[in-house]
UniProtKB/TrEMBL annotation:
One Pfam family of this chain: Oxidored_molyb
Protein name, entry field: Molybdopterin-dependent oxidoreductase-like protein
Region Disordered, annotated ranges: 141-170
Domain called Oxidoreductase molybdopterin-binding: residue spans: 20-137
Length: 170
């Protein structure tokens, strides 16, 4: 929900959107979209998890500017330095293109202005410094991880994609 106290930072570079059409969105266009605040849990490969209030623009609102084909199965989210995560479309479209956390712009705390966050997206797939979002339609049986770059597999799972188990139950 929109919150008048949340600050919409200007973006130093625009974000490329690839759907039925191909376009870019800059900070001014982003600021015209609805700002929402959502609690998202980040689950790290180490098993650590933390929930924080992120704010930003719904991924659905952003990507609709490029028109999302109905047959889309995944979103490919890429950072400015080429890190890539491939996330199931239902999970990803429920996410935020986050601009801030705990009421503060992301750039106040780190060296990036944007971050993809979504309930159900693993920590390694919460891409920082988003430069490009593409709607993908993968064939049944295609491996979404084959589209990823830099997303480290869980060291304990030998290439399987089981969620990490927390170290303690507290
Ligand atoms: N662009 C980009 N985003 C990234 C990464 C990265 O290397 N580059 N690392 C991921 C991984 S592996 C994790 S666990 C989290 C770490 O987020 P944190 O720094 O907030 O703990 O960011 C994710 N997002
Ligand atoms: Mo990580």
């Amino acid at each position: 929900m929109a919150d008048g106290d949340l600050h919409v930072p200007s973006l130093s570079s625009s974000i490329r959107l690839v759907g039925e059409e191909e376009t870019t969105i800059d900070g001014a266009a982003l600021a015209a979209l609805p700002l929402e605040e959502r609690e998202c849990e980040i689950v790290c490969a180490t098993g650590d998890r933390y929930t924080e209030p992120w704010y930003g623009v719904p991924v659905l609102e952003v990507l609709e500017r490029a028109s999302v084909p109905p047959e889309t199965t995944h979103l490919l989210v890429e950072s400015a330095d080429g890190y890539r995560a491939c996330v199931a479309v239902d999970t990803a479209l429920e996410g935020l293109l986050a601009l801030g956390k705990n009421g503060r712009p992301l750039a106040d705390a780190g060296d990036y202005e944007t971050r993809f966050v979504a309930v159900g997206a693993d920590g390694p797939r919460t891409v920082k410094d988003v430069a490009r979002i593409e709607a993908l339609t993968l064939e049944p049986g295609a491996d979404p991880e084959a589209y990823e770059i830099g997303v480290a597999p869980d060291p304990d799972s030998e290439g399987e994609s089981d969620p990490p188990v927390p170290d303690d139950a507290s």
